[in-house]
Specification:
Length: about 300
C-alpha cells in the first residue's frame, strides 16, 4: 500500500521592513541582568556583535555577578555598559573597586550613572553627579558615560511634580559633557506614547540640553507583565496607553509589541533628522530572545558600522 505524500507547507515570506524603522533601530541597545543573561546560551545568535548591552545592577546583586556578566558579554564582542546606582554604593573605596574590576576583568569603558531606585542611600552617594565628581571614571579611561532621562518627570527628584531639580541636574550634566571628552547621552525609562516624548526631547534642546537621547522602549511582552513593570518603575502618564489597551477585549490576551510606537517615532526622526532622539534602548520585559527576534524581524539586524562610533 502506497503511503500518501504530503507537501511541506511553505514558510511565510517575512514582512517587508519599514526603512524608517530600520534606520531608527540601527545601533539599538538592550538591557540585561545577571540572572536573565545566565538564561541565554549564546548571545551571538541573537544580537549583532557591537551591540551595546547595559547590565542593570539591582540592590543586593553581588558585584562579582555583575563583573562576570560584563566579562562574558565583552568577550562575545559586545559594548558593555554596567549600571552604577549611586545610592547602593557605600563609599568612594567601593566605587573605586567596582571601576577597577570592570576595567581590569571585563575591559569595560562605558557606564550608566544614575541615582538608583532605593529611597535611602546606603552610604555617602545620593546622585550620579557625586559619582562623576570623584574623577574615578576619567582616571580609569571610561569613554562613554550615560545618565538617566525622565520624559515623564521623577517624583523622587521633584516631589512637588515640577521638573526643577531634574532640569538643574541635566544642566549640570550638559556642562560636564561640554567641558570633558566623555561621550554622553541620556537613556530614558520606557515609554508608551510618541507625542509626549517628542515634546520632551524638543523642550530639552530648546533649553540647551543637546545630549543624544536613547529612548527606552519596552520589548514585546504580555500586557499584564508590562503593567506590573510600569507601576513598579514609576512610569506615569503613558501608563494610560496600557490601561486603554487592557479595556479592549480583542487585545487583552495579545502580546504588546512596540511596532506602532516605534513606527511613529521613526517617521518623526526621518522628518526631523536634527532631533536629539538618537537611538532605541530596549527593556526586554518579555524575554531577551523575544525582544531580539522582534528587532531582527523589523530591520534591527545591523550593529553600528565599524567606522562609526556610538554615543
Amino acid at each position: 500500500m502506497a503511503l500518501l505524500q504530503f507537501k511541506k507547507k511553505p514558510e511565510a515570506d517575512p514582512l517587508p521592513v519599514n526603512p524608517q524603522l530600520e534606520a531608527l533601530l540601527k545601533g539599538y541597545s538592550i538591557e540585561v541582568m545577571p540572572r536573565t543573561a545566565a538564561k541565554v546560551e549564546d548571545f551571538t545568535a541573537l544580537l549583532p556583535k557591537g551591540t551595546r548591552v547595559y547590565v542593570a545592577h539591582l540592590e543586593g546583586t553581588p558585584i562579582e555577578d555583575m563583573v562576570a556578566t560584563a566579562a562574558r558579554l565583552s568577550a562575545d564582542g559586545y559594548d558593555v555598559m554596567p549600571h552604577f546606582p549611586a545610592r547602593i554604593i557605600a563609599d568612594r573605596a567601593t566605587l573605586a573597586d567596582w571601576v577597577s574590576r570592570y576595567r581590569g576583568d571585563a575591559d569595560v569603558t562605558q557606564a550608566l550613572l544614575l541615582a538608583g531606585g532605593v529611597s535611602k542611600p546606603l552610604g555617602e552617594f545620593d546622585n550620579s553627579m557625586q559619582l562623576l565628581e570623584t574623577g574615578l571614571f576619567d582616571s580609569a579611561g571610561f569613554t562613554n558615560l550615560h545618565f538617566a532621562g525622565h520624559p515623564e518627570g521623577n517624583r523622587d527628584i521633584d516631589p512637588d511634580g515640577s521638573d526643577k531639580n531634574v532640569m538643574d541636574a541635566l544642566r549640570w550634566k550638559q556642562d560636564f559633557s561640554n567641558r570633558t571628552d566623555a561621550k554622553t547621552a541620556l537613556a530614558t525609562q520606557f515609554i508608551f506614547e510618541a507625542k509626549p516624548v517628542i515634546e520632551w526631547a524638543d523642550a530639552l534642546k530648546e533649553a540647551g540640553i543637546d545630549m543624544p537621547i536613547h529612548l527606552g522602549i519596552a520589548g514585546p511582552a504580555k500586557l499584564q507583565t508590562l503593567v506590573k513593570f510600569a507601576i513598579a518603575c514609576g512610569v506615569g502618564p503613558s501608563l494610560k496607553v496600557l490601561q486603554k489597551r487592557a479595556k479592549d477585549m480583542t487585545k487583552l490576551l495579545l502580546p504588546f509589541e512596540p511596532t506602532d510606537l516605534l513606527t511613529a517615532l521613526a517617521a518623526y526622526k526621518a522628518e526631523n533628522p536634527d532631533s536629539n532622539i538618537a537611538q532605541v534602548h530596549f527593556f526586554p520585559l518579555g524575554g531577551i530572545k523575544t525582544n531580539a527576534n522582534w528587532a531582527i524581524a523589523h530591520g534591527g539586524k545591523s550593529a553600528v558600522p565599524a567606522n562609526q562610533t556610538q554615543d
